[in-house]
Design brief:
By secondary structure, this protein is mainly beta. The protein contains six helices and 38 strands.
Length: 690
């Protein structure tokens, strides 16, 4: 008999003798996907429908607290276990005392004294853990889960309230850690001061900020990042749930629920299924126990250390450490281990090479002696007897379901070029176990894409708003909610260069502009088109009705309206063809009246507004050798703010609001004499061979 097999037998023998010490039923785990919360928990049938038909895989459980507003009477250990068997993950939440600065009218309040508030946080943590144990969300000692504290928005401008809240959450976190569990906090991202908890003595393990998009609806591209009042640099390692939509109704599989929607890249709780007498168990030669339940495969390698064995003949009072790495000397116990109380061998349920596994029925302890095996011709290590009680010795368990397939065959293909700015990304996925898979798509211009674009069961993702002539990187993360997420390779594509407007043009309609000899520049603002005209007028066209209204520009009847720029309820029109007497007309677009003329000292042409400044170009004509400049006008005072020499003959101008740079065009080159340009005086604008 090998030493390994003797060790295996000791583990099993001791496990059978253990009295019930509580189910190894709960664990906190990282989860990537979508979840929802609802004040009153839905029925089991509604939840079964949604796990099948909706994109949600996690659900909030309001497990208690003095300010919990819904009774949730259906919330029992049996209910939680059945939800777990359906495939749900959990967000356990405790709604206890609120800040004294909270506007609500019910429930108790957190003390404004920091020391008292800290102790209140400890007491609430203990109360929450006790409920979690009863619901099967935590182990018997209170370890193995996460609970989020719901702190509603309060007056965060009051430092007394803020310091009390920080102290309370520090106590809450410290006690959950002391009990072997993780601590989370829920609240308004701004109104609950979530950012404060990043610097307290005991920092929560995870956060659940509420920061909503409108309209309220399911969004496959929702992300836990870029939350108001929260830096992306805190709680950034799979520690976030974001409530992105407030109360709204969604219908999946014909069942309508009013919910809040959440995107999750953070910590949730799970409840392992109850091990029944009909569970399939297997023990291998590496001292690992496996069992199948509700389609999931779990395994364990860690056992509790059991001392002072009793009740087994010859072993009373002996001290034996039972661990996978322990050394067991068969010579110490030549008669071999014995099991007591019955002669039934149980039912053979699994064969594994040389090891047969028996299941004991009826909850009774059974025994079979070393001599009995010998009399039947068995080597003692060839037969293992297990019972449901063996699971009570497990201290850790993990789901080892097969992970989803790695996403492959991207479309567009990796490295593709000339792609549209509104592409549909697709890939091939799947899961070996047939589990439902949530695919999360990340895309950005960085080779390590971090911006979430889609999340759902579809193997395609439609993207819009991309820039032209830009290389994008993307990848897909696949999660079945059971095993670790699988991250696919990073792919890339480059968007197309915008094409000029070519082809056959067709007039689709005309707007008669009575009396206009030469329509010049046109600009559109607030549903109206403004057309510069010669003689010096503006024609305003209502684009909804195609009706016109003329604005006379007086006393500068000889002027040529140039470009039009808008700021607020004003239109700024450059009046050229006046030489150094050039003006800018200020038009009130609400009543189509001219409120002012601004003398600019140059012959102006192009115009644009930026940050309460009007930038105009000095259009240097053939008979004007004045310096080429850009004038800057303060539009609050209608006065010249600056004159910028540009060294060229500028016509049009535009300002980039991001780089804060102005770009101007060079109309023509004045380096040649005027006589050489004599053939150009009639053209506008003109390009001449000289």
């Amino acid at each position: 008999m090998t030493l390994r097999r003797w060790m295996l037998m000791v583990v099993i023998a001791v496990a059978i003798m253990i009295a019930s010490v509580g189910m190894g039923a709960a664990s906190a785990e990282n989860f990537l996907g979508q979840g929802f919360d609802k004040c009153e928990i839905p029925t089991l049938s509604q939840m079964q429908n949604w796990i099948t038909n909706s994109p949600y895989r996690a659900v909030n459980l309001y497990i208690g607290g003095s300010v919990r507003s819904c009774t949730n009477s259906a919330l029992t250990a049996s209910y939680v276990s059945q939800l777990s068997q359906q495939g749900w993950k959990f967000i356990p939440t405790w709604v206890g005392p609120q800040s004294a600065g909270w506007s609500g009218s019910s429930g108790s309040r957190i003390s404004n004294d920091p020391a008292t508030a800290y102790n209140e946080g400890i007491n609430e943590a203990n109360a929450a853990i006790n409920v979690a144990i009863n619901l099967g969300l935590a182990l018997a000692d209170g370890s193995g889960t996460i609970i989020y504290y719901d702190i509603e928005n309060y007056d965060t401008t009051n430092t007394v309230y803020r310091n009390a809240a920080k102290s309370f959450i520090s106590g809450w976190t410290a006690q959950l850690h002391a009990r072997g569990s993780k601590a989370g906090v829920y609240g308004s991202s701004c109104g609950s001061g979530i950012n404060d908890f990043a610097s307290i003595s005991n920092v929560p393990d995870a956060i659940w900020p509420a920061n909503w998009f409108t309209p309220y609806q399911y969004r496959s591209d929702a992300t836990v990042w870029d939350v108001a009042c929260l830096s992306n640099g805190i709680w950034g390692n799979h520690q976030r749930i974001r409530q992105y939509a407030g109360g709204h109704s969604e219908t999946w599989g014909g069942v309508t629920l009013n919910i809040d929607s959440n995107v999750i890249d953070g910590i949730v709780a799970s409840s392992l299924p109850t091990i029944s007498e009909k569970s399939l168990l297997r023990v291998d030669t590496q001292i690992e126990v496996y069992w199948l339940q509700n389609g999931k495969l779990y395994w364990i390698t860690d056992w509790e250390i059991i001392n002072q064995m009793s009740g087994i003949p010859g072993w009373a009072g002996d001290s034996v450490n039972i661990l996978p790495v322990s050394v067991f000397n068969p010579a110490t116990y030549p008669q071999g281990p014995r099991f007591i109380t019955s002669t039934s061998e149980g039912m053979l349920i699994q064969e594994n090479g040389a090891i047969d596994v028996y299941l004991i029925s009826g909850g009774m302890r059974h025994y079979i002696t070393y001599e009995l095996f010998v009399s039947r011709g068995y080597d003692f290590a060839d037969v293992i007897i297990v019972s449901p009680q063996i699971m009570n010795a497990i201290t850790k368990g993990s789901d080892i379901s097969t992970p989803p397939n790695t996403p492959i065959t991207p479309a567009p293909s990796n490295g593709a070029t000339n792609q549209p700015t509104t592409p549909t990304l697709s890939w091939t996925g799947g899961d070996p176990d047939g589990d439902s898979v949530i695919y999360t798509v990340y895309l950005s211009t960085s080779s390590n894409p971090t911006t979430q674009k889609c999340s759902g069961t579809s193997t395609s993702c439609s993207v819009s708003g991309l820039s032209y002539s830009t290389k994008y990187y993307w990848n897909v993360v696949a999660s079945d909610g059971k095993s670790s997420p699988v991250t696919g390779p990073v792919w890339s594509f480059t968007t197309t260069t915008p094409s000029p407007i070519i082809g056959t043009w067709k007039v689709i309609g005309t707007i008669p502009l009575t009396g206009i000899k030469m329509p010049l520049h046109i600009a559109i603002n607030q549903g109206k088109a403004y057309v510069g005209r010669n003689p010096a007028q503006l024609t305003v066209i209502d684009l909804a009705t195609n009706t016109t209204n003329d604005i006379l520009i007086t006393p500068y009847s000889g002027a040529t309206p140039g470009y039009i720029a808008f700021s607020g309820n004003k239109a700024y029109v450059t009046l050229s063809n006046l030489g150094s007497s050039g003006q800018v007309a200020v038009v009130n677009i609400n009543d189509n009246t001219i409120s002012a003329y601004i003398p600019v000292g140059v012959d102006p042409w192009g115009a644009t507004t930026f940050n309460n400044k009007l930038y105009i170009t000095n259009n240097v004509w053939w008979n004007d050798n004045s310096p080429a400049t850009v004038k800057v006008i303060n539009i609050d005072t209608n006065s010249i703010f600056a004159s910028i020499p540009v060294g060229i003959n500028p016509t049009s101008i535009a300002v980039d609001p991001v780089t804060r740079k102005a770009y101007v065009t060079n109309h023509n080159d004045l380096s040649k004499s005027l006589s050489e340009k004599s053939g150009c005086s009639e053209c506008y604008p003109c390009t001449c061979e000289v």
